[in-house]
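Why does residue order matter? Because the sequence determines the fold. Keep that principle in mind as you read this record.
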Amino acid sequence: MERKYDLNPNHPGKLFVISGPSGAGKGTICKRLLEEADIELSVSMTTRAPRNGEIEGVSYFFTDRETFIEKVRAGGFLEYAEVYENYYGTPKEPVIDRLREGIDVILEIDIQGAMKVKENYPDGIFIFILPPSMAELRKRITGRGTETEDAINLRLSKTLSEISYIDKYDYCVVNGVLEEAVSRVKSIITAEHSRVTEDVSALIEKYEEEL
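Structure:
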C-alpha cells in the first residue's frame, strides 16, 4: 500500500482512532490513556465560540467560518462535519507533524468521523469500544438522569446501527471493567509498535550498515 505521508521510518508515531456508541466509556478510556501511556490527544477545530474555561489549542482550535471553509477546500482536515450550524473537524497538519516526530496520537471520534479518517489516513489503527451488553448500556445512560425514556430508546436503537461498523475497525474492546479495557487498549498500542510493516526495510538497512 502506498503511503500518503512521509513519516520517520525508524520511529514513526501512530494514530489510534477510538470510537464507539455513546455510553460505551470511550472518553473515560482515552482520559486514562493520556494519564498512563506515552500518547497525545488530537485537538479538534471548531467555528463555535469558546465556552467558559475552554483554552485555545487545548480544548479546541477556535476559528471563524470562512477560515474553516478555506481549510476544507485546501484539504486541511482528516475529517470534518457541520453540527447545529457550527463546523467541527480534525486538522491534518498538527496530527501528521506529531506522527513525523515519532509521537503517538489518539483521536476520540464518532463512527462517521472515523470512517472519514480511514479514507484520508488508512495507516491509522481503529479501535471500537463496546459496552458489555445493551442492558448495561441502558443502565449507564439512565444513570446520567439527563434523557427521557424515548431518547434513551432512540440512542439504543442507534447503537445497534453503529455496531454494524465493527468490521471496519482493526480491534474491538469490550468495556465491562474499566481497568481491563484500558489495559487491552494499552496492549494494542504496544503491539502495533512491534508490527512488521514495509518500514522494516529501514531497520534491516540499519543492521547491514553496522556489519
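The helical segments are 26-36, 65-73, 92-100, 111-120, 134-144, 149-163, 178-192, 200-210.
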